[in-house]
Design a protein that fits this description.
With 334 residues, this protein is of the alpha+beta class. The chain has 10 helices and 12 strands. Bound molecules: adenosine-5'-diphosphate and magnesium ion.
Length: 334
């Protein structure tokens, strides 16, 4: 607790200003230090903007490693840009801190900037205040006008795809809650998925002109896919077993060893949340193009269902039999 030795502006200068990098990013005309940042998207580009807030105790545990928290705070925002097919330009950081804790700030900024630099996304401004730990990031990206991926473009007959892995973040949360135990190796993997999600930024951009609709999976596959169905005015059949195969810790046999039953597994994969993968749709005629986009972006994708004209979501097993099990999405106020 070093408030007397370092004030708000000293803190910003030391941990967030990075004058050596200022405005080296194409698309950022002016970064941290003035009353506004100035962004300059290239001609013909639209600005893509999204905010996500992380509140201690609700979105992260107070014990989380600050570097991992810095990573995650930006990752969940980059995931929104990915879902729109936008290329990251910059971000703002609004931070409420209970006290100036320098080791915490050093770790947080290290994790934050490691991911920012990996995506060429510059911190261009923000706000810093004393208060209960709360992190709000707004990201700015650019996308060629008219090509952003939206939730509203899914059509009957389209395939439903998911990127990467599903369910592991929720499995790790259940371990932290004491409701589950895992072998050490599986827990390390699941915990990394929970604390350091991988925003699928390259895949999102590669899917422009190919995917008919996209969303990022933050509140659980079923809930977020539901947003595509509602916005597109369609229904779907979802293959629960295809989605369940995307649980990363199951790839090494941990699930087969009987750690949790098939219903639990389906529930983690379909309504676990905190995955930060992309769920997207594309016409069946675009399967090869989707697979190429996945290869180019070095991101695995899997086909997990089909869009239909009939409204509603039908969850079936691998044999096409409807499941009685219910799958909800996460809602902070439900
Ligand atoms: P103002 O009073 O004009 O809102 P501030 O005094 O809050 O400006 O901030 C001074 C400068 O530092 C601004 O350029 C602002 O964008 C930047 N800034 C403040 N907090 C942060 C932060 N957490 N990360 C990055 N930049 C920040
Ligand atoms: Mg301010």
């Amino acid at each position: 607790m070093l408030w007397p030795l370092m004030n708000e502006f000293g803190l910003i200068d030391k941990y967030f200003a990075r004058p050596e990098r200022r405005s080296r990013t194409a698309g950022v005309a002016l970064g941290v230090g003035d009353d506004c940042a100035l962004l300059a998207p290239a001609p013909g580009m639209q600005l893509a903007v999204s905010s996500d807030m992380l509140v201690e105790g609700r979105h992260f545990l107070s014990t989380v490693d600050p570097a991992r928290l810095g990573h995650k705070a930006l990752a969940v925002n980059l995931s929104d840009l990915a879902a729109c097919g936008a290329k990251p330009l910059g971000f703002t950081l609004a931070l409420a801190l209970p006290a100036i804790d320098e080791p915490w700030l050093a770790g947080f900024s290290r994790g934050l900037f490691a991911l920012a630099d990996a995506h060429g996304c510059e911190l261009v401004g923000g706000d810093t205040t004393r208060g209960p730990l709360n992190i709000c990031i707004t990201v700015f990206g650019e996308v060629p006008a008219g090509t952003a991926l939206l939730r509203s473009g899914a059509r009957a007959g389209d395939d439903i795809w998911a990127s990467g892995t599903l369910g592991d973040a929720r499995i790790a949360l259940e371990v932290f809650r004491g409701a589950l135990t895992l072998p050490a190796e599986a827990f390390t993997l699941a915990r990394a998925r929970m604390e350091q999600p991988t925003p699928r930024v390259a895949l999102g951009q590669a899917l422009r002109g190919i995917a008919s609709a996209a969303v990022d999976v933050s509140d659980g596959l079923v809930g977020d896919l539901g947003h595509i169905l509602a916005a597109s005015g369609v229904g779907a059949t979802l293959d629960a077993d295809a989605a369940t195969q995307l649980i990363a810790i199951c790839a090494d046999g941990a699930c087969a060893a009987g750690l949790f039953d098939v219903e639990a597994r389906r529930s983690f994969a379909l309504s676990g949340g905190d995955d930060y993968e992309l769920a997207f749709t594309a016409p069946a005629s675009a399967r090869v193009a989707v697979e190429q986009a996945a290869r180019h972006s070095v991101t695995p994708v899997a086909r997990i269902g089909r869009i239909e004209a009939e409204p509603g979501l039908r969850v079936v097993d691998a044999g096409g039999e409807p499941l009685a099990q219910r799958f909800g999405g996460f809602d902070h106020f439900a």
